Amino acid sequence: MPDDRQRTIIKVFRKYSNSLGPDALDFIEQILDENGISDEDIEISLETLAKEYNKQDDATMKVTVDILRRVYESFQEQDNPDEFQAETIDPDSHLYVIDAFEMPLWHWSVERGTFERFNGQMTISGSPESRVLAVRDRLHVIKQCVLRNEHFAPSTLPSRDRDKLVTLKSTKQLLGRAGERFLILGMLTHSKEGKVCIEDADGVVELDFSKLDAPGDGLFTEGCLALVEGEYTEEATLEIIAIGQPPCEPRSTARSIYGHIDFLGKGATSLLEDAQFSVRIRDELSELHFFFLSDVWLDHPQTIPGLQKMFDNCIENSFIPKVITLCGNFTSRSIAHGNSRDIQRYQENFDALADLIASYPTITRTTHFIFVPGPLDITGNSVLPRRPLLSTFVSRLKAKVPKAHFATNPCRIKFFNQEIVVFREDLMSKMLRNIVGVKPNVRSDDLKRFVNHLTPLTNGVQPTLSDFDHSLRLYPLPTAIVLADKYDRYKITYTGCHVFNPGTFVGGSYTFSTYKPSEINSEEW
């Protein structure tokens, strides 16, 4: 009969859908004994070992000793700090701009309890099945985080706190149980009669807000996922006593479980590599910065002089950023239905920007310029995620700026072990128009509470391409999120994720934000 340590080994590898034979189990125990790993550190060490095992190209569901030995030997080689530090760190080789349409699609498998990669063809139009799967994935990804939370997940050891655990219920479990209290996780929607409901994978129930004094932190909009606690009534409604946001899972926790999954399509990294990169960024790239600007209205007379002033200050102070991200709108008014003169002026403004950037060779040699379209810019589509700026308008930028990247909206920046999401959308106004239930006193940083998806709204309010809805997913939680919105500026760190709004560039003050990867923090300028 297996002892406690063997049960822990089996449990960790089963989480990754692996099975262990006696030889593999003995080898893992041998590794733990040789390295003198304490009982408190066993689970963390096993997580690292299991994740690295599953990254091997020839890894099988049943764990083999040969592959385990190879993984263990690679860890021993990486433990040599002199060998690791001898390598020269090159920021450019670890900088990627991730296109939303190139991110691999991972569906949540209820049967296997993990993510499964979709290898079929993804299309702009999508299909009825993909529209259903997109919404269900939103629910299931958050639900598995909630069930792992300390308030929901029982400990494997006997404890008095087990009685204090909260149990999630399904809407189908409400039937015939009037007068009882339930906690439901689901999506807030409206019924055909206009009533506010909560819907999960099994059904829907109408909500009664009459006894609710005030909701929890954050904004509760139609289409967002919420935890609702209430009493089921004879009228088949849920009389709400509390409503709150699902608890957020830190990036480190998600990475420890799903670190072997390549969500971005640029190769997965191990937790050991992440830790080594963090130290080296802090020690060797402490003065490296990223600039983020929003609402760079090229048709405004103050924009080009403002950019010129910013570039001059960079040169004068030898403060050359590694990345400058320019977010739209690149026009102060919509020209989607404008005349030919409006279109021509739009292109001329980009040409003027290209000439300005090219006049600073010190900057263009080292700095990456990322262009993210806004809601008013001309792209290949109008729903999220948006295609990059049409190449017709940015041909001179491509020719004169060697490190120009024309990104989708949203896009992601992968820098070593860090993931930065950049999203340009006037989201706050849409969310305020679609709040359900009791309306709270709203602050601009309430946007930070929506940490599971960039657009916690229904498809009718904010249309999305169902086959690419995963590009709007915020799981695992990024290192930083740039929510470029015309609303008030703010910055806040929430569950280890730094969220900030750089504000509008034009307006007399030329405001923008700088991000420092070594500190995972931003500054307002």
Question: Could you characterize the architecture of this molecule?
Answer:
29% of the residues lie in helices and 19% in strands. It is of the alpha/beta class. The strands form four sheets. Strands 1-13-14-15-17-16 form a six-stranded mixed β-sheet, with no helix packed on it. Helix 1 (4-15) runs parallel beside helix 3. The longest helix has 21 residues, at 128-148. The protein starts with a helix and ends with a strand.
Descriptive tags:
single chain; 525 residues; alpha/beta; 6-stranded mixed β-sheet; 19 strands; globular
Give a quick rundown of the structure.
By secondary structure, the chain is an alpha/beta fold. Helices cover 29% and strands 19% of the residues.
Topology summary:
Elements: H1 4-15, H2 22-34, H3 42-54, H4 65-78, H5 81-86, E1 95-98, E2 106-109, E3 114-117, H6 128-148, E4 181-190, E5 196-199, E6 204-208, E7 225-232, E8 237-244, H7 251-258, H8 271-284, E9 290-293, H9 303-316, E10 323-327, H10 340-358, H11 361-366, E11 368-372, H12 395-400, E12 404-406, E13 411-415, E14 418-424, H13 427-433, E15 480-484, E16 490-494, E17 497-501, E18 513-516, E19 521-524
Parallel strand pairs: 6-8, 9-10, 10-11, 11-12, 14-15, 15-17
Antiparallel strand pairs: 1-13, 2-3, 4-5, 4-7, 5-6, 7-8, 9-18, 13-14, 16-17, 18-19
Number of strands: 19
Cα separation of the termini:
63 Å
Q: What proportion of the residues form beta strands (DSSP E)?
A: 15-25%
| Structural class designation | alpha/beta
How do the strands line up in the largest sheet?
1-13-14-15-17-16
Pick out the low-confidence regions. 81-86, 155-159
Mean pLDDT, rounded to whole units?
88
Shape designation: globular
- Supply the number of helical segments: 13
Largest sheet: 6 strands, mixed
Percentage of residues in helical conformation: 25-40%
Q: Whole-number radius of gyration?
A: 25 Å
